[in-house]
Design a protein that fits this description.
By secondary structure, the chain is of the alpha+beta class. Helix content is 21%, strand content 40%. The protein folds into 2 domains: 1-29; 31-318, outer membrane lipoprotein receptor (LolB), chain A (Clam). It has 7 helices and 15 strands. Strands 1, 2, 3, 4, 5, 6, 7, 8, 9, 12, 13, 14 and 15 form a 13-stranded antiparallel beta sheet that branches. A two-stranded antiparallel sheet has the order 10-11.
Amino acid sequence: MSTKKNFAIAALALLCSTCVLVSKSRAANPPTNADELVALHLDSIASPTVRAGLKTRVVQAPVHYTILVGGAGVLDGRAQIASDGKKLVFMLKLPNNEYHGEQFVFDGDKDKVAFSTAQQARSAFGSFVFVQDAVIREGLVGGALTTAWPLLNLEERKAKLSFDGLKKIDGQELYDVRYRPHKNTDLEIHLYFDPQTYRHVETTYSYSVIQSLTGSSSAVTAAAANGEAPVTAGSPGKSGNGMSPGGSPETAQARLNPNRYRLTEKFSEFKTVDGVTLPTHYDIQFSQELQNGKTTLSDWDLKGVEVSNNMSLDPRNFEVK
Protein backbone atom coordinates (compact mmCIF):
# COMPACT_ATOMS: atom_id res chain seq x y z
CA MET A 1 0.00 0.00 0.00
CA SER A 2 1.41 3.41 -0.95
CA THR A 3 2.42 6.08 1.57
CA LYS A 4 -0.32 8.39 0.20
CA LYS A 5 -2.99 5.75 0.81
CA ASN A 6 -1.69 5.10 4.33
CA PHE A 7 -1.78 8.83 5.05
CA ALA A 8 -5.33 9.18 3.69
CA ILE A 9 -6.60 6.26 5.78
CA ALA A 10 -4.92 7.62 8.91
CA ALA A 11 -6.39 11.08 8.30
CA LEU A 12 -9.87 9.63 7.79
CA ALA A 13 -9.59 7.57 10.97
CA LEU A 14 -8.47 10.65 12.91
CA LEU A 15 -11.40 12.67 11.54
CA CYS A 16 -13.90 9.94 12.47
CA SER A 17 -12.51 9.63 15.99
CA THR A 18 -12.62 13.41 16.41
CA CYS A 19 -16.29 13.49 15.32
CA VAL A 20 -17.10 10.73 17.80
CA LEU A 21 -15.33 12.58 20.62
CA VAL A 22 -17.14 15.82 19.80
CA SER A 23 -20.47 13.98 19.68
CA LYS A 24 -19.77 12.30 23.05
CA SER A 25 -18.67 15.60 24.55
CA ARG A 26 -21.91 17.27 23.48
CA ALA A 27 -24.00 14.38 24.78
CA ALA A 28 -22.14 14.47 28.12
CA ASN A 29 -22.60 18.24 28.45
CA PRO A 30 -26.07 19.07 27.13
CA PRO A 31 -27.21 22.70 27.27
CA THR A 32 -28.94 23.72 30.49
CA ASN A 33 -30.21 27.13 29.44
CA ALA A 34 -31.16 29.14 26.36
CA ASP A 35 -27.81 30.93 26.09
CA GLU A 36 -25.89 27.66 25.92
CA LEU A 37 -28.29 26.22 23.36
CA VAL A 38 -28.15 29.31 21.14
CA ALA A 39 -24.33 29.25 21.19
CA LEU A 40 -24.34 25.60 20.08
CA HIS A 41 -26.98 26.35 17.46
CA LEU A 42 -24.99 29.20 15.94
CA ASP A 43 -21.89 26.99 15.73
CA SER A 44 -24.02 24.41 13.91
CA ILE A 45 -24.57 27.00 11.15
CA ALA A 46 -20.97 28.14 10.75
CA SER A 47 -17.90 29.17 12.67
CA PRO A 48 -17.90 32.66 14.25
CA THR A 49 -15.50 33.89 11.57
CA VAL A 50 -17.69 32.65 8.72
CA ARG A 51 -20.86 33.98 10.36
CA ALA A 52 -19.29 37.41 10.76
CA GLY A 53 -18.70 37.55 7.01
CA LEU A 54 -22.30 36.70 6.04
CA LYS A 55 -24.03 39.94 5.04
CA THR A 56 -26.70 38.99 2.49
CA ARG A 57 -28.40 35.82 1.32
CA VAL A 58 -30.70 34.72 -1.49
CA VAL A 59 -32.69 31.51 -1.18
CA GLN A 60 -34.51 29.97 -4.14
CA ALA A 61 -36.55 26.79 -4.52
CA PRO A 62 -39.54 25.27 -6.31
CA VAL A 63 -42.67 25.40 -4.16
CA HIS A 64 -45.49 22.86 -4.16
CA TYR A 65 -48.72 24.26 -2.71
CA THR A 66 -51.48 21.95 -1.49
CA ILE A 67 -54.79 22.47 0.32
CA LEU A 68 -54.80 19.52 2.72
CA VAL A 69 -58.03 20.19 4.64
CA GLY A 70 -61.05 22.34 3.86
CA GLY A 71 -60.80 22.33 0.09
CA ALA A 72 -58.87 20.95 -2.83
CA GLY A 73 -56.13 22.34 -4.97
CA VAL A 74 -52.51 21.87 -6.01
CA LEU A 75 -50.18 24.45 -7.55
CA ASP A 76 -46.47 24.48 -8.41
CA GLY A 77 -44.44 27.66 -8.45
CA ARG A 78 -41.23 29.29 -7.26
CA ALA A 79 -40.09 30.62 -3.91
CA GLN A 80 -37.52 33.30 -3.27
CA ILE A 81 -36.26 34.74 0.00
CA ALA A 82 -33.76 37.60 0.05
CA SER A 83 -32.22 39.07 3.18
CA ASP A 84 -29.76 41.83 3.98
CA GLY A 85 -29.10 42.05 7.70
CA LYS A 86 -32.53 42.54 9.29
CA LYS A 87 -34.15 43.41 5.96
CA LEU A 88 -36.19 40.63 4.44
CA VAL A 89 -38.39 39.86 1.45
CA PHE A 90 -40.24 36.54 1.36
CA MET A 91 -42.04 35.49 -1.84
CA LEU A 92 -44.06 32.45 -2.87
CA LYS A 93 -45.05 32.82 -6.54
CA LEU A 94 -47.86 30.66 -7.94
CA PRO A 95 -49.35 30.73 -11.47
CA ASN A 96 -52.96 31.38 -10.50
CA ASN A 97 -55.02 34.59 -10.50
CA GLU A 98 -57.25 33.48 -7.65
CA TYR A 99 -54.22 32.80 -5.49
CA HIS A 100 -50.91 34.01 -6.83
CA GLY A 101 -48.88 33.42 -3.68
CA GLU A 102 -47.41 35.55 -0.91
CA GLN A 103 -45.11 38.51 -0.53
CA PHE A 104 -43.90 39.70 2.86
CA VAL A 105 -41.44 42.59 3.11
CA PHE A 106 -39.60 44.13 6.06
CA ASP A 107 -37.32 47.11 5.45
CA GLY A 108 -35.80 47.12 8.92
CA ASP A 109 -38.52 49.41 10.26
CA LYS A 110 -41.83 48.86 8.48
CA ASP A 111 -43.45 45.70 7.16
CA LYS A 112 -45.84 44.92 4.32
CA VAL A 113 -48.01 41.92 3.45
CA ALA A 114 -49.15 42.09 -0.18
CA PHE A 115 -52.56 41.09 -1.49
CA SER A 116 -52.59 37.60 -2.91
CA THR A 117 -55.82 37.31 -4.89
CA ALA A 118 -57.37 38.85 -7.99
CA GLN A 119 -59.93 40.45 -5.68
CA GLN A 120 -57.17 42.42 -3.92
CA ALA A 121 -57.46 40.43 -0.70
CA ARG A 122 -54.99 38.58 1.46
CA SER A 123 -54.98 34.83 1.89
CA ALA A 124 -55.59 33.21 5.26
CA PHE A 125 -51.82 32.84 5.68
CA GLY A 126 -51.15 36.42 4.59
CA SER A 127 -53.89 37.77 6.85
CA PHE A 128 -52.36 35.95 9.80
CA VAL A 129 -48.92 37.48 9.16
CA PHE A 130 -50.52 40.90 8.57
CA VAL A 131 -52.17 40.79 12.00
CA GLN A 132 -49.37 38.98 13.83
CA ASP A 133 -46.47 40.83 12.25
CA ALA A 134 -43.86 39.51 14.71
CA VAL A 135 -43.50 36.62 12.26
CA ILE A 136 -41.69 38.91 9.82
CA ARG A 137 -40.61 41.87 11.98
CA GLU A 138 -38.59 39.55 14.23
CA GLY A 139 -36.96 37.81 11.26
CA LEU A 140 -38.43 34.49 12.34
CA VAL A 141 -39.97 33.43 9.03
CA GLY A 142 -37.53 31.27 7.09
CA GLY A 143 -35.55 30.36 10.19
CA ALA A 144 -31.78 30.23 9.81
CA LEU A 145 -32.16 30.48 6.02
CA THR A 146 -32.07 34.30 6.33
CA THR A 147 -29.60 36.81 7.73
CA ALA A 148 -32.54 38.28 9.68
CA TRP A 149 -32.70 35.18 11.92
CA PRO A 150 -32.98 36.78 15.38
CA LEU A 151 -30.70 34.28 17.15
CA LEU A 152 -27.82 35.75 15.15
CA ASN A 153 -28.20 39.00 17.08
CA LEU A 154 -30.30 38.51 20.21
CA GLU A 155 -28.73 41.46 21.98
CA GLU A 156 -30.07 43.86 19.38
CA ARG A 157 -33.46 42.13 19.19
CA LYS A 158 -33.90 42.27 22.98
CA ALA A 159 -36.09 39.19 22.81
CA LYS A 160 -36.56 36.90 25.80
CA LEU A 161 -35.93 33.17 25.52
CA SER A 162 -37.27 30.52 27.88
CA PHE A 163 -35.52 27.15 27.83
CA ASP A 164 -38.03 24.33 28.34
CA GLY A 165 -35.67 21.38 27.88
CA LEU A 166 -36.45 18.34 25.78
CA LYS A 167 -40.01 17.88 24.51
CA LYS A 168 -41.44 15.13 22.32
CA ILE A 169 -42.69 16.73 19.11
CA ASP A 170 -44.30 14.42 16.53
CA GLY A 171 -42.53 11.47 18.12
CA GLN A 172 -39.10 13.14 18.15
CA GLU A 173 -37.33 14.62 21.15
CA LEU A 174 -36.33 18.23 20.51
CA TYR A 175 -35.10 21.11 22.62
CA ASP A 176 -37.93 23.60 23.12
CA VAL A 177 -37.25 27.33 23.44
CA ARG A 178 -40.06 29.83 23.80
CA TYR A 179 -39.40 33.12 21.99
CA ARG A 180 -40.89 36.35 23.36
CA PRO A 181 -40.30 39.46 21.23
CA HIS A 182 -39.38 42.75 22.91
CA LYS A 183 -42.56 44.21 21.43
CA ASN A 184 -45.58 42.53 23.00
CA THR A 185 -47.43 39.97 20.87
CA ASP A 186 -50.41 37.65 21.30
CA LEU A 187 -48.49 34.88 19.55
CA GLU A 188 -47.05 31.91 21.36
CA ILE A 189 -43.78 31.18 19.58
CA HIS A 190 -41.69 28.05 20.08
CA LEU A 191 -38.35 27.22 18.45
CA TYR A 192 -37.26 23.57 18.32
CA PHE A 193 -33.70 22.23 17.98
CA ASP A 194 -32.22 18.82 17.26
CA PRO A 195 -30.52 17.55 20.47
CA GLN A 196 -27.65 15.94 18.55
CA THR A 197 -26.74 18.68 16.08
CA TYR A 198 -28.41 21.75 17.69
CA ARG A 199 -29.79 22.71 14.30
CA HIS A 200 -33.06 24.62 14.28
CA VAL A 201 -35.62 22.21 12.80
CA GLU A 202 -39.03 23.72 13.57
CA THR A 203 -40.89 26.87 14.60
CA THR A 204 -44.51 27.01 15.70
CA TYR A 205 -46.67 30.10 16.10
CA SER A 206 -50.09 29.69 17.72
CA TYR A 207 -52.86 32.13 18.53
CA SER A 208 -56.46 31.84 19.66
CA VAL A 209 -59.18 34.41 20.26
CA ILE A 210 -62.78 34.33 21.39
CA GLN A 211 -64.82 36.47 19.03
CA SER A 212 -68.31 37.80 19.54
CA LEU A 213 -70.76 36.54 16.92
CA THR A 214 -71.48 40.21 16.19
CA GLY A 215 -67.80 40.66 15.39
CA SER A 216 -67.33 43.36 18.06
CA SER A 217 -64.01 41.90 19.23
CA SER A 218 -62.60 41.59 15.75
CA ALA A 219 -59.52 43.64 14.87
CA VAL A 220 -59.05 42.47 11.31
CA THR A 221 -61.29 40.46 8.98
CA ALA A 222 -59.67 39.58 5.67
CA ALA A 223 -61.05 37.48 2.83
CA ALA A 224 -59.06 34.31 2.33
CA ALA A 225 -58.10 32.88 -1.01
CA ASN A 226 -58.85 29.56 -2.70
CA GLY A 227 -62.20 29.02 -1.02
CA GLU A 228 -60.92 29.12 2.54
CA ALA A 229 -62.94 30.82 5.26
CA PRO A 230 -61.85 34.33 6.17
CA VAL A 231 -59.34 34.93 8.91
CA THR A 232 -60.69 36.95 11.78
CA ALA A 233 -58.26 37.92 14.46
CA GLY A 234 -58.85 40.12 17.42
CA SER A 235 -57.25 41.25 20.65
CA PRO A 236 -58.13 39.00 23.58
CA GLY A 237 -59.85 40.91 26.32
CA LYS A 238 -60.78 43.86 24.18
CA SER A 239 -64.48 43.09 24.52
CA GLY A 240 -64.52 41.17 27.76
CA ASN A 241 -65.33 37.52 27.18
CA GLY A 242 -66.78 38.17 23.73
CA MET A 243 -70.33 37.41 24.91
CA SER A 244 -73.45 39.54 24.98
CA PRO A 245 -76.42 38.92 27.26
CA GLY A 246 -79.34 36.77 26.08
CA GLY A 247 -79.46 34.07 23.43
CA SER A 248 -79.72 30.31 23.63
CA PRO A 249 -77.24 28.07 25.52
CA GLU A 250 -76.02 26.79 22.13
CA THR A 251 -75.30 30.33 20.97
CA ALA A 252 -73.54 31.12 24.23
CA GLN A 253 -71.39 28.00 23.88
CA ALA A 254 -70.49 28.92 20.28
CA ARG A 255 -69.29 32.29 21.51
CA LEU A 256 -66.99 30.56 23.98
CA ASN A 257 -65.26 28.50 21.26
CA PRO A 258 -62.18 30.40 20.15
CA ASN A 259 -60.82 30.79 16.65
CA ARG A 260 -57.47 28.96 16.60
CA TYR A 261 -54.61 29.67 14.23
CA ARG A 262 -51.33 27.80 13.88
CA LEU A 263 -48.33 28.35 11.63
CA THR A 264 -45.61 25.69 11.51
CA GLU A 265 -42.25 25.84 9.72
CA LYS A 266 -40.11 22.71 9.42
CA PHE A 267 -36.50 22.50 8.23
CA SER A 268 -34.57 19.38 7.20
CA GLU A 269 -32.01 17.85 4.81
CA PHE A 270 -29.13 20.09 5.89
CA LYS A 271 -26.13 20.61 3.64
CA THR A 272 -22.86 22.47 4.08
CA VAL A 273 -21.70 24.85 1.36
CA ASP A 274 -18.78 27.25 1.78
CA GLY A 275 -18.64 26.46 5.48
CA VAL A 276 -22.33 27.27 6.07
CA THR A 277 -24.78 24.51 7.03
CA LEU A 278 -28.42 25.23 6.17
CA PRO A 279 -31.56 23.23 5.37
CA THR A 280 -32.43 22.36 1.79
CA HIS A 281 -35.99 21.29 2.62
CA TYR A 282 -38.38 23.89 4.07
CA ASP A 283 -42.04 23.13 4.71
CA ILE A 284 -44.73 25.61 5.80
CA GLN A 285 -48.17 24.70 7.10
CA PHE A 286 -50.93 27.06 8.16
CA SER A 287 -54.15 25.93 9.83
CA GLN A 288 -57.21 27.68 11.19
CA GLU A 289 -60.02 26.21 13.28
CA LEU A 290 -62.85 28.71 13.20
CA GLN A 291 -65.64 29.33 15.63
CA ASN A 292 -68.20 28.16 13.06
CA GLY A 293 -66.58 24.71 12.97
CA LYS A 294 -64.72 25.12 9.67
CA THR A 295 -61.12 23.90 9.60
CA THR A 296 -58.57 24.54 6.87
CA LEU A 297 -54.97 23.41 6.45
CA SER A 298 -52.63 24.52 3.67
CA ASP A 299 -49.08 23.45 2.89
CA TRP A 300 -46.21 25.10 0.98
CA ASP A 301 -43.38 22.62 0.43
CA LEU A 302 -39.95 23.87 -0.72
CA LYS A 303 -37.54 21.12 -1.75
CA GLY A 304 -34.10 21.50 -3.26
CA VAL A 305 -33.46 24.88 -1.63
CA GLU A 306 -30.49 26.70 -3.18
CA VAL A 307 -28.58 29.23 -1.08
CA SER A 308 -26.32 32.04 -2.33
CA ASN A 309 -24.43 34.11 0.22
CA ASN A 310 -23.13 37.68 -0.04
CA MET A 311 -24.84 38.53 -3.30
CA SER A 312 -25.26 42.17 -4.28
CA LEU A 313 -28.91 43.08 -3.63
CA ASP A 314 -30.85 46.06 -4.96
CA PRO A 315 -32.11 48.09 -1.94
CA ARG A 316 -35.41 48.56 -3.79
CA ASN A 317 -36.17 44.88 -3.10
CA PHE A 318 -36.87 45.84 0.50
CA GLU A 319 -38.93 49.00 -0.06
CA VAL A 320 -42.22 49.21 1.80
CA LYS A 321 -44.58 51.62 0.08
